[in-house]
Amino acid sequence: MNTITIEPNSKADYQLFIDLAKRLKAKFSVSSDISTETNHEKMSKQKEAKFFALSGSFDLPESSDELIKIIEESRTSNDMDTSRA
C-alpha cells in the first residue's frame, strides 16, 4: 500500500482533503500527533515571539529628555552635518 502525507495550508484545505478521500472511498487515517497548526501559523508565531523578545530587550529611560541625552552622548562626533537635511 502507498502512503501520502499532506500538510494543508488552512483548515478549509484540510476539510477538502478529508471530503475528497471520503468521496473517492480511499482508506485514510487522521493522526492526533500531527499539529493542526499550518506552517504559516507556526512561522507567524515564531516571528512574533522574536519581535517581542527584541522589543523587551531595550529599556527606555523615564522621559524623552533622558533619551535625547543618551543619544547625544553616544555620538562619536559632536559636530553634526546638517548640509543634507
Would you kindly provide a written description of the structure presented here, covering whatever features stand out?
- It is a single chain.
- The protein has three helices and no strands.
- The protein is rod-shaped and about 75 Å long.
- The model has no long low-confidence stretch (mean pLDDT 76).
- It has helices at residues 11-23, 39-55, 64-74.
- The longest helix is centred in the middle third of the chain and has 17 residues, at 39-55.
- The protein has 85 residues and is mostly helical.
- The protein has a domain at 47-73.
> What is the makeup of the main sheet?
none
Helix count equals 3
Q: Give the H and E element order.
A: HHH
Gyration radius, in Å: 27 Å
Question: Quick check: average pLDDT?
Answer: 76
Tell me the helix content. 40-55%
The dominant shape is: rod-shaped
Query: Which ranges are low-confidence, i.e. pLDDT below 50, for 5 or more consecutive residues?
Result: none
Amino- and carboxy-terminal Cα gap: 71 Å
Counting helices, strands and paired strands, the structural category is mainly alpha
How many strand units? 0
Strand content: under 5%
